[in-house]
Amino acid sequence: MIRVEDLNRHFGGFRAVDGASLTIETGSITGLIGPNGAGKSTLFNVIAGVLPPTSGRVFMDGEDITGLPPHALFHKGLLRTFQLAHEFSSMTVRENLMMVPGGQAGETIWKTWFQRGRIAREEAELRRKADEVLDFLTIRHLAHEKAGNLSGGQKKLLELGRTMMVDAKIVFLDEVGAGVNRTLLMTIADAIIRLNKERGYTFCVIEHDMDFIGKLCDPVIVMAEGHVLAQGSAADIMKNEAVIEAYLGTGLKNKDMVGA
Ligand SMILES: Nc1ncnc2c1ncn2[C@@H]1O[C@H](COP(=O)(O)OP(=O)(O)OP(=O)(O)O)[C@@H](O)[C@H]1O
Ligand SMILES: [Mg+2]
C-alpha cells in the first residue's frame, strides 16, 4: 500500500531521516521501532504530509503522494492520529467524533460546520455513525463526557475512533500506548486488531512497548540513525544482533527490548 523510496529529511546538517526505504503491505499491522531519535516520527510526518522531504519519494497504491498536504492524504484514506486539539476538550466525546468527516481536525472544520448549517438529516447520520464507533470501542457510556475529562488512555481511544468516522485505508499511530495503563492499552490493541480484521484497515504503528508490538505487529521494521536497519517478525527482530546493538548503544532503552 505504501512504498517509501530513499527518503531523506534533514534539519540543517542533521539527517533525521537518512535514506529510508520501506514498504507497508496492504492489510498488515506493521510495527516501526527503534531507539529514541532514530527518525521514526519524522518519517511518519513526511509520509503524512506534515513535513516535506528533503529528497525521496512516497507512493500509495502506486501513486506518487510525495509532499501532498495532510488534507489531500486524508481524502485518499491516509490518516495519522493527532492529539485532541485543546479547543475540543469542552466538547463531548460524541461531538468530537461528529466533527471529523469534514476534513482535518482544527479550526477550519469548526468554521465549515457552522457555515454549512446543521442539516438535521446529516446530523442524525453523523450521530448514528459516532455511536457505532463508540460501541466498537466499547466507550458508548462516555458519549456525553467532555473530552477534556477523559483519562490519557480514553483520549487515545477517541483519537483512534476519529479515524473510524471516515473510510480510512491506512492509519499511522505514533506511540498510541504512551502513558496508557495496561488495561486500556489492551483495549487499544484489540480495537486495532478488529479494525484490521473486520474493516480491512492497514496500520503502521510506532511503539516502544515490545509486548504491544509483539502482540500486534507483523512485520516489524527497525529504524536506527534515520534508515531501516532490519525487518522481520517481532521474534526475529529481538534476536537480531544489529538491532540489539542499536538499542544497547542508547543504554536506557534496553529494557524496552526485553520487555521489562
Ligand atoms: N524540527 C526539528 N528540527 C531539528 N531537529 C529535529 C526536528 N525534529 C526532529 N529532529 C531531530 O531528528 C531526530 C529524529 O527525531 P524523531 O522525533 O523522528 O525520532 P523518533 O525515532 O521518533 O524518537 P522517539 O522514539 O524519541 O520519539 C532527533 O535527533 C531529533 O532531535
Ligand atoms: Mg517519535
Can I get a quick summary?
This protein has 260 residues and is an alpha/beta fold.
How many strands?
A: 10
Task: Please report which band the strand proportion falls in: under 5%, 5-15%, 15-25%, 25-35%, 35-45% or over 45%.
Answer: 15-25%
Quick one: CATH class of the largest domain? Answer: Alpha Beta
Strand order of the largest sheet: 6-7-8-3-9-10
Number of domains: 2
Shape: globular
Give your account of this protein's structure.
With about 260 residues, this protein is of the alpha/beta class. The protein has two domains: about 1-75 and about 165-260, P-loop containing nucleotide triphosphate hydrolases (Rossmann fold, 3-Layer(aba) Sandwich); about 85-165, no CATH class. About 40% of the residues lie in helices and about 20% in strands. It has eleven helices and ten strands. Strands 6-7-8-3-9-10 form a six-stranded mixed β-sheet, with helices on both faces. It has a four-stranded antiparallel β-sheet with strand order 2-1-4-5, covered by helices on one side. A hairpin with a 2-residue loop joins strand 9 (about 220-225) and strand 10. Helix 6 runs parallel beside helix 7. Bound molecules: adenosine-5'-triphosphate and magnesium ion. Adenosine-5'-triphosphate binds near residues 14 and 40.
